[in-house]
Specification:
The complex is a heterotrimer.
Chain A: H1 2-28, H2 31-37, H3 41-72, H4 79-91, H5 94-105, H6 119-143, H7 147-155, H8 160-188, H9 192-197, H10 208-216, H11 220-242, H12 248-257
Chain B: E1 4-8, H1 14-18, E2 23-27, H2 29-37, E3 44-47, H3 51-58, E4 66-71, E5 73-78, E6 98-101, H4 106-117, E7 127-131, H5 134-142, E8 148-152, H6 153-158, E9 163-166, E10 176-182, H7 188-199, H8 201-209
Parallel strand pairs in B: 1-2, 1-3, 6-7, 6-8
Antiparallel strand pairs in B: 3-10, 4-10, 5-8, 5-9
Chain C: E1 4-11, E2 16-23, E3 26-30, H1 37-45, E4 52-57, E5 60-61, E6 72-75, H2 87-92, H3 99-105, H4 121-134, E7 139-143, H5 151-168, E8 172-176, H6 179-185, E9 188-193, E10 196-201, H7 203-208, H8 213-218, E11 222-230, E12 235-239, E13 244-247, E14 253-259, E15 265-267, E16 277-289, E17 292-297, E18 300-305, H9 306-312, E19 319-324, E20 329-332
Parallel strand pairs in C: 3-8, 3-9, 6-7, 7-8
Antiparallel strand pairs in C: 1-2, 1-4, 4-5, 9-10, 11-12, 11-14, 12-13, 14-20, 15-19, 16-17, 16-19, 17-18
The chains are: A mainly alpha, B alpha/beta, C alpha+beta.
Chain lengths: 258, 216, 334
């Protein structure tokens, strides 16, 4: 009895701890004010910057990450090491990511570029931290495709390319979509690497999280309103992930395992 | 008794030199003021201007502020000076990467005052990043990633080998006064004693040695 | 009809699969699991690359060709249907023209819009077959075509499959771990053990003249170990337990005595008929298989009709006499 009470208490506390700050944001921002803030010039600029850089970073991650995941889903010597390297940014502190980006793409970095403080710098910072999330999910998605089904496609006359687009990609799609949504959510919230590597300039490099930070120093209510917007966006992404209409493949797995 | 002292980022080196014992949190003065408004537990607030402590005083969050030192602004460029900046006028050139502090951050406001007085507000077109405190401006210029930035004289001295200092005309200098105040709800008596020490001879000598200007 | 000619070696875990074989009609490879049976199919389909040797069809060298350029129809053991496509799309994947016709022919036209996840095992097998045939293959490959089916569906599907293979007249290579399935579907059966073909012969021949003890026991025979010594006209074999049996086959030294279950008769009492070999023992198990009953007596399995079993009142633990003729035995090297 006591043990059950303790477990219940711990669960309730954990839930409350995680939920309370999120609820508090909305408790302190009446919906009317939230919409009013969306008309605030700084907020509008930040939404635009976030939307554009997130879209660009997402495109970069999908276009480069998908083929990388296809290769990394195969078995070959040194694969573990490569996957580890790809996943490393996931566990790096954002500040280290920022320094690393300078060291690589800075004016005095390895590649001597003039990327820092530009829109492209935001895109790179976001892609650097969100890419590994997508690639990781994509590797798992491709590994989950039954090799016999792929082999079946080949024996039925489809070459590797046709097999990839007609069989592998459709079967991996739920996993790829989940990874993409997670990466997008993580990218939208990117702060540390961005503020270091891209700086913060309204309308150019100031994304929503950066706007929260700078508004916190000026007007707490505006910071709250932008935070509420970010919570809503993230929640929408998460819900889209969880309540995706179940696809034929998930039904198949259920039937096959029964 | 260890005090919690929220202090302007430009005081990062000098405060621990004056008193190593206390617990410091350095940042943009406006960010620190925001923290106090949100109820941050603190005993002393040392700001790079007088306006922020005055606002908190009017809101009855701190006791009456006192000016304890002064400072001056300067233009810095990386040692290698990649954009060949020799004066504020050169900042107008296309492609120059200028880094300044955001408006609301004391040094950001001072920077805009300087540019107004020199009739050079146009150079703000070349700003590539608005930083949250003076040390972020300093870091980006010292790293060589930005071509120029406006910081306090005292900051420039902390990274001597990495940046060059271009002094500003006297008429352009704003009055940079630092005010300190005891935060209400903290350890008020000890905080008041610490404030007195900051105004005392030894501490003032340390401030001057770091390049700060006398209280007047 | 064109011939599929195999002659290759493929390294597998622990051993090497070597196979030299011509497939003209239907060949079944049987053997215990892990014998390399499925790997043989993968080599023919181009899904595995042999270390040496070749796969030729009708004189054409398929060895360097990728799977999509070989005209094989491979039916996977787990069918490997495309779970995201409906039945019609699965079948049409290999060839659009014949898809509808094949659905009709395999009696799955009513399932055209169903997804594989909604089908029974037997239905999935038909879809897999239709899909492989839609490709218009020159060679048909079947991997354990009946293994995933329950006993009831199995005999029905076996019969249909046998008829279908007869109509198709394609060189067909199928693998199975079940000798009865192999015998029912193929006109040549190869016994594959540890990557090597022990014997390749028509099913009747395998039963009549098994080359060794393994082949014999795999085809369902009783295998008794013993030591042979020639006597006048007969060979006397002293079994490991000490009992003696007689065979008309000639042999000397260590041998396996092969007796098929249907050669063994059961009786309550010892009779004085022509059977020379008698084992008196306890009934170990009684299992009905269709209209026959398999009875375990000591080291032997006997197969009798259900009527006989009832007449004898066979039950576990009872004692019976199992007898078989010397002419009903084969002596094989071990």
């Amino acid at each position: 009895m006591i043990r059950r009470l303790l477990v219940f208490g711990a669960t309730a506390t954990a839930l409350a701890f995680l939920v309370l700050p999120v609820v508090a944001i909305f408790a302190r921002v009446p919906p009317g004010r939230l919409f009013a803030q969306l008309g605030n010039g700084a907020v509008v600029d930040a939404i635009r910057v976030s939307a554009e850089t997130s879209a660009a970073a997402q495109a970069l991650v999908l276009v480069l990450g998908t083929p990388a995941a296809v290769v990394l889903a195969r078995r070959f010597p040194g694969r573990g090491l490569l996957v580890g390297l790809v996943e490393l940014p996931l566990v790096l502190p954002p500040a280290v990511a920022g320094i690393g980006l300078f060291a690589a793409f800075g004016r005095f970095g390895l590649l001597h570029t003039s990327i820092p403080f530009t829109r492209l710098a935001v895109v790179l910072a976001v892609a650097f931290v969100s890419g590994p999330l997508y690639v990781r999910a994509a590797i798992a998605a491709f590994e989950g495709v039954d090799p016999n089904v792929v082999a079946a496609s080949r024996t039925l006359g489809a070459g590797p390319t046709r097999t990839f687009f007609r069989v592998v990609l459709p079967l991996a799609r739920p996993g790829l979509a989940a990874g993409a949504a997670l990466a997008l959510a993580r990218g939208l919230g990117e702060f540390g690497a961005t503020i270091m590597f891209a700086g913060s300039l309204r309308g150019v490099t100031e994304t929503l999280p950066l706007a929260v930070y700078s508004e916190f120093n000026v007007d707490f209510d505006t910071a709250l309103a932008i935070s509420a917007l970010l919570v809503a966006l993230s929640a929408a992404l998460l819900l889209a992930l969880k309540w995706r209409p179940s696809l034929s493949t998930s039904r198949f797995r259920f039937a096959a395992s029964s | 008794m260890i005090l919690t002292i929220l202090a302007a980022a430009s005081l990062t080196n000098v405060f621990p030199a004056i008193d190593r014992r206390e617990r410091y949190s350095f940042g943009g003065s406006n960010a620190l003021a925001a923290q106090i408004r949100q109820g941050a537990p603190a005993d002393v607030f040392a700001s790079a201007n007088t306006a922020l402590p005055q606002q908190l005083y009017r809101a009855r969050l701190v006791e009456k502020p006192v000016v304890f030192t002064h400072n001056a602004l300067t233009l810095i460029v990386p040692k290698s000076n990649p954009a060949h900046i020799r004066s504020v006028a050169d900042l107008r050139r296309k492609g120059v990467k200028l880094v300044v502090a955001a408006p609301g951050v004391p040094v950001g406001d001072y920077t805009r005052t300087v540019l107004r007085r020199l009739h050079r507000t146009g150079v703000l077109r070349n700003v590539v990043s608005e930083e949250n405190d003076v040390r972020d401006v300093l870091a980006k210029v010292a790293l060589g990633e930005a071509d120029a930035g406006f910081v306090y004289r005292t900051d420039a001295r902390t990274v001597r080998g990495k940046v060059r200092t271009l002094s500003l005309p006297r008429r352009a200098q704003p009055r940079v006064a630092y005010a300190v105040a005891v935060v209400r709800g903290g350890h008020a008596a000890a905080a008041r004693r610490w404030m007195q020490r900051l105004l005392g001879k030894a501490a003032q000598a340390k401030l001057r040695a770091a390049g700060f200007l006398p209280r007047r | 009809m064109a011939t599929l000619a195999l002659d290759f070696a493929l390294p597998l875990r622990g051993f090497e699969l070597t196979l030299a074989l011509d497939v003209e009609r239907t060949v079944a490879l049987v053997g215990p699991s892990g014998a390399g049976k499925s790997s043989a199919l993968r080599v023919v389909a181009g899904l595995a690359r042999p270390r040496r040797g070749s796969v030729r069809f009708d004189g054409e060298d398929w060895t360097p060709l990728p799977p999509e350029r070989r005209r094989v129809g491979l039916v996977f053991q787990d069918y490997a249907l495309f779970p995201h496509l409906d039945v019609l799309a699965n079948v049409a994947y290999g060839g659009r023209e014949r898809a509808r016709e094949l659905l009709e022919r395999l009696r799955i036209a009513h399932l055209a819009r169903a997804k594989p996840g909604e089908l029974s095992g037997g239905e999935r097998q038909r879809v897999a077959l239709a899909r492989a045939l839609a490709r218009d293959p020159a060679v048909l490959l079947l991997d354990e075509p009946l293994a995933a089916l329950d006993a009831h569906t199995k005999s029905e599907v076996r019969h249909e499959l046998s008829e279908l293979l007869g109509e198709l007249r394609l060189p067909t290579l199928l693998v199975t771990h079940d000798y009865e399935d192999a015998a029912a579907l193929a006109d040549q059966v190869g016994v594959l053990v540890d990557g090597r073909l022990r014997q390749l012969a028509p099913p009747a021949e395998l039963v009549a003249r098994p080359r060794d003890g393994f082949v014999a026991s795999f085809t369902g025979a009783n295998l008794l170990h013993g030591h042979a010594s020639p006597t006048i006209g007969l060979t006397q074999v002293t079994l490991e337990g000490g009992a003696c049996v007689y065979s008309t086959d000639a042999a000397d030294g260590a041998v396996g005595v092969v007796v098929y279950p249907w050669e063994v008769s059961l009786a309550r009492e010892q009779s004085a008929d022509s059977a020379l070999n008698v084992v008196h023992g306890e009934v170990g198990s009684v299992v009905e298989v269709g209209n026959r009953v398999r009875v375990r007596v000591g080291p032997l399995t006997a197969e009798v009709t259900a009527a006989s079993a009832e007449r004898l009142g066979l039950a576990r633990g009872g004692r019976v006499y199992a007898t078989f003729k010397a002419t009903g035995t084969r002596l094989v090297p071990l």
